[in-house]
Amino acid sequence: MSEPQGSQGTEGTTQRLPVLEKAPDTGTDTGEYEPPPVLEGEAEGAAESRFWSARRVPAGIVALLLVVIAGFFLYDITAVRAEQPAMRWRRELAAQLAERPLDDIWVLVGAGIAAALGVWLIVLAVTPGLRGVLPMRRTRTDVRAGLHREAAALVLRDRAVEVAGVQSVRVRLTRTKADVGALSHFRELDDVRADLDATLAEAISGLGLARPPALSVQVRRPGKKG
């Protein structure tokens, strides 16, 4: 006689599926946007250095001037070595430098221009430039990201016009402050301002900037036509 295979056969061929436990309800909406994570060891909003500009135009101008001046002097020195008279401009320049006193107006003007150019070149050498690019928080050590101020201002403007009661929005964004001016054609101004504060604060947090700008919101009624 053969034993029944009902329950044993079913247990031998059926696999138990994993059970997914439901996370406890904490009262927060997990569908909301979360800002990019911050690297371990870095504080929230830590200062991130600005991007350095290549400054190709100033460098090209200085290089071109140096090449032209050096070419003139090299040609003149070569002519003198070949027993040719020196160029007229160099003879006059040498005579003027030898005869004019240091307190002469033209000497002072030339010295002032040279000093101003020197200070300008030093400032360009020690400052990063690219003020229109806002550094973003690093999520990886080998990647640096930046966001153009125009793009960030456009994001804030698009988020602001979604608020009920807002007719038009003007956004002026700097590295440290976001000035938002809105026109509201209905609803109470205080309610519109409160909604704008909350919406724009969330939008600034979502940009992932290393140094989020301070928010300033102003709401007013449109002016009367005519």
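The above is record 1. Record 2 follows with the same two-line structure.
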Amino acid sequence: MPSKGEVTRDKLMDIAERHILENGFAATSIDVLIKEAGITKGGFFYHFDGKNALAYALMQRYRERDAFLFSSLFKRAEELTDDPLQQMLIFVKLLAETLDEMEGSHPGCLVASFTYESHQVNEEVRAIVADSVKDWRKLFKEQIEMINSKYKSKLEINSQDLADMLSTIIEGGIIVSRAVYEPKILVKQLLEYRNYIRLLYGD
């Protein structure tokens, strides 16, 4: 069972994440967070040295959650088939379904938030944002290279570029969905990527 301190820390992080996604990092003040969390400023600094430490903790949690999500979905795909192309198609479909079922904003928006306000955070936060995106790139590239070892694509492609396309669709889809208030855009774009992979490698 989590300790009282851990519960408070998690609550504070949940509140901070929501405020940052809604208003941005610079506009999210410690005073607003502690008021909503029902703690003192000393209570905040007991858990975090400052806003940058909070931002780092949020990105660390986001990174761990996405790693768990992606690995779980790939594991499910691997249980269904040994074929790397089918695994990728199943993974993207499962990812689309998972994101479609999520309420509110996907936490991947934190990448966009901290990237747009990179001048507001320190080097440690910028580094973990970059590392989080690199995690995606590495995972997707490895799967595409397994596909390339078995299938010949109909067009000349670069494994890293094709992996980056999926990363870009995820982050870009989140941003566009939020900008025009159409949450289904992200899901539709993921399914279009799936169609592209199917066409690229054929039956």
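The chain has a mean pLDDT of 92.
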